[in-house]
Amino acid sequence: MTTSTIDPTARKVPPLGGMNLTVLRIELMRMLRNRRTIIFTLVLPAALMLSFGGQAGWDDPVGSGNVGAYILLSMALYGAALTAAAGGSMVALERALGWSRQLRLTPLHPVAYIMMKTFVALVMGALAIGAVNLIGILQGKAEMPEHIWIAGAALGLVCTLTFAALGVFVGYVVPGENAMQILGPGLALLSFLGGLFIPLSQYAHAVRLIAYWTPMYGVAEVVRSPLTHELPWYAVVNAVGWFALFVAGAAWRMSKDTARV
Amino acid sequence: MTSATTVPAVRLSGVTKDFGNVHAVRGVDLELQQGEIVAFLGPNGAGKTTTIDMVLGLSRPSTGEVSVLGLEPRQAIARGLVSAVMQTGGLLKDLTVRETVEYTASLFANTRPVDDVLDRAGIAGIAGRRVAKCSGGEQQRLRFAMALLSDPALLLLDEPTTGMDVEGRRAFWSAIRADAESGRTVLFATHYLEEADQYADRIVLISHGRIVADGTGSQIRALASGRTVRVTLPGADERVTDAIASLGGVDRVEVRGDTVLVHAKDSDTVARYLLTETDARDLEITAKGLEEAFLSLTGDAAHEEED
Question: Which domain of life is it from (chain A) (predicted)?
Fold first, then answer.
């Protein structure tokens, strides 16, 4: 009956666990087509930069620059964090749609998938940081040496990974498209507490003591450290600790989630 | 080339799968040859889905071994040897039809050209449409296009023709049959008995995590409840019925006036005996319906477990 059979040894496994440029292109296109993402990535941080960047005392000196530069670094981090969290929460959404299961029926390796999503989150984070920086330059108020400008942007990009992991984590805990409704206000609150919108020195002592423990505090200090030349050890512990915690949480939820969809 | 010398498309040996205290699969041995069309039949919660997940490498058996074309399931997937079409989900709504196929194609080492695949699936005309805007039928075609991209040796289908009309169903199965002739093995899960009987070369019936029957549609029917041999035999007394009952494979003998009903697994022996050794006439052999066979083999409908 069987006239031909398929020789399994003739088939090849794709290189790099299936990662390729076509997939990266389509994934980026998806992000750029998404109106909500564009608002979070480009419009909102840029608008915040415009309104906060020109507040009274913008030209007061801070470290090797001015308050304008301090605000610019903070707003860039906020925009990148929001974008990365939005991207991260899409992982859970894709899971809910059965897309992740579909991908598991292809040669795409789970590690390659995570790498790809990380790359996309970084590109989107870079766009957010770029948008804020562009507005900052056009506004002409932020002032700091060029290398600090670059170092701040680069650190901001690295710190977005924390929030990409947070996005994945929250995306799993809060199923469906509601994740962003929690992440949006949640990140705004954390940004207030972490001193992104208002410097911590303006807070009451008790509030400050709480703020030191919140996830935005550490990364904010890290990102601004090239400008301020100040980096308390507990800020570094905070940044590393929350990163580890969110990655662990995301990994835990991902491995837990064996439900068929 | 004969199928005896080639590697089986699927081999499960002593496979069990537990989820905590729930024994979803309780020891399955199964071998599918290349080019077979096999129906995987069973009520909800019988262990169909769990078994298919293990063949797809989505979960590992608690004990026992699963191999696909002689490879570990994940290895077979990485080589594009296995595809599956699920009934729902598995699509990104914000991609276009073409992007979805391109995306999937780019993940494999070798695929058929995207345009060809779109064309063959009859979705070339809607290639630029967002998946969210596609009808259920168009989405199902897209799922098939994605599954056939890598020219898989094994295709797993979950309730493949749900929602198709009669015409669509017929066209679908003739396409599947053509593929099977070129060596593709098709395993489809269904709880439509008729569909299993009509289109599969072989039916594997699973219930409570065990394979309870494995054979062609008519074999399954016969297995379940045997056949009923009905004859007109006036004056059948106890001596006659005892003689019939002592034949191999006879379950029960009923006398209703001049009519004798013999329920037997081996209806041929009974028929031969009745026609040659007695005065029986008007002999009729009826098999029970597949529906009844199914119910009697899978235990009882009231016994359904949850997945």
Answer: Bacteria
Buried b (16+ CB within 10 A) or exposed e, A178-195: ebbeebbeebeebbbbbb
Q: Enumerate the H helices of A41-108 as residue ranges.
A: 44-53, 67-96, 99-104
Q: In this structure, what DSSP letter does residue A3 have?
A: -
Lowest-confidence segment of B235-249, B251-265, B279-293 by average pLDDT: B279-293
Whether residue A230 is contained in a domain is answered as: yes
Residues of chain B positioned with their CB less than 8 A from the CB of A34: 94
Q: Where are the domains of chain B?
A: 10-81+152-222, 227-287
Q: Report the length, in residues, of chain B.
A: 307
Q: Which CATH class is domain B10-81+152-222?
A: alpha beta
CA distance B152 to chain A (A): 9
Give the integer Cα–Cα distance in Å for A31 and A22: 14
Question: In chain A, what residues touch B104 (CB-CB under 8 Å)?
Answer: 102, 106
CATH number of this structure's domain B227-287:
3.30.70.100
Instruction: Write phi, then psi, for A46 (nearest 5 degrees).
Output: -65, -40
pLDDT in tens, B35-90: 899 999 887 778 888 999 999 988 889 999 999 999 999 999 999 999 998 878 88
CA distance B205 to chain A (A): 22
Residues of chain B in contact with residue A108, where contact means CB-CB under 8 angstroms, are 107
Q: Is residue A1 part of a domain?
A: no
